[in-house]
Amino acid sequence: MGLFDKFQKIQQSIETLQQYSDSFFKVVLEEILSSTEAIIDGRKTILAGTNNYLGMPHRKECIEAACKAVREHGTGTTGSRMANGTYSVHVELEQAISRFLNKKHTIVFTTGYSANLSALSTLVGPKDIVILDADCHASIYDGCRLGGVQVYRFRHNDVSDLEKRLKRLIKKGTNILIAVEGLYSMLGDRAPLRQIVELKKAYGAYLLVDEAHSLGVLGEHGRGLSEEAGVEEDVDFVIGTFSKSLGSVGGYCSSNHKELELLRFASRPYVFTASSSPANIAAARKALEIIEKEPQLRSRLWDNANLLYGQLKEMGFSLGPEPSPIIPVRFSEIPKAFAAWNGLLENGVYVNMVLPPATPDNTALLRCSLSAAHSREQVEAIAKAFQKVKHLA
Ligand code: PMP
Description:
The chain is of the alpha/beta class and 393 residues long. It contains 14 helices and 14 strands.
């Protein structure tokens, strides 16, 4: 066995997929025109798969804040938060997120991935148990693996399956942390958070909610599904990312448990990596301010989401379970999904192609994500492009 033999399988899969679409592996956004348009393969293309829910990457105020931060603090921190990488901007952003979420403590991480990696690998250990929704993001799974906690999965959004596991596992007499997402990244559906909170309380468990796709998207003030469901006080740990509605790079974990602060000393993904660049921090901070001041962005996002969901539904596509800014369109056959994906690009629309095993139910998904920055005309153009590939679904 040579070192690289294990890559043969992946190489074969790539070659098989290349038969369907050569361009799939070569998508380059050659020129970014705005939050909703780019030049791809020389063609002006509507971006409908970028998780850019509120159009923040191109807001003048965010760009100015990032440029100012570079001028004042330099391009990078060249150090970990533990050493020389904690600037006043990192501390101020942590305070701003705590204020926004009404939590006592917040730690900012270099990415959302490392926020989950840190939280799951450090808050719980080999003697504890994590029960997670089967559709949870890879970073939640990886965090569990890094810390060596015992992991049990429950069927996606199936509260009775969660209760079955809680009933059995409570007998082990150890700590249990339930991990779920707010809005799920592939199907765009909400976790049944109220019922999950009831179970958490009944069984004396802890609850972690990853609001990566729901920050700025759900809740009267944009605080996520916990706000929308009215259960913020019952969520022990909130995870978030700057890479979606905030249009930057970074992540956070917030909590009212004062022990969260100890992650700064105990968590390897926090201690052993460089802190976020001042530009990323400043852009995220400005975007958070805008979310607080402009609830109309959220309304616009939902108008766009409802419009596209309604139009695709009317065309007869098989979609995710509920209208959402994340709209997965199912294709039962992979070659046809590729043909549709190519067809959309030829018609000037980019969406994400998601293939099994990354998809929840083993079908191929063309995953759309909407933005408040999309115009009504753009949403209609996306729908029209889907109409042209309908025969493939
Ligand atoms: N959690 C969820 C649910 C996500 O979807 C993602 C990113 N796709 C992350 C965490 C990681 O966030 P980041 O991109 O900031 O690393």
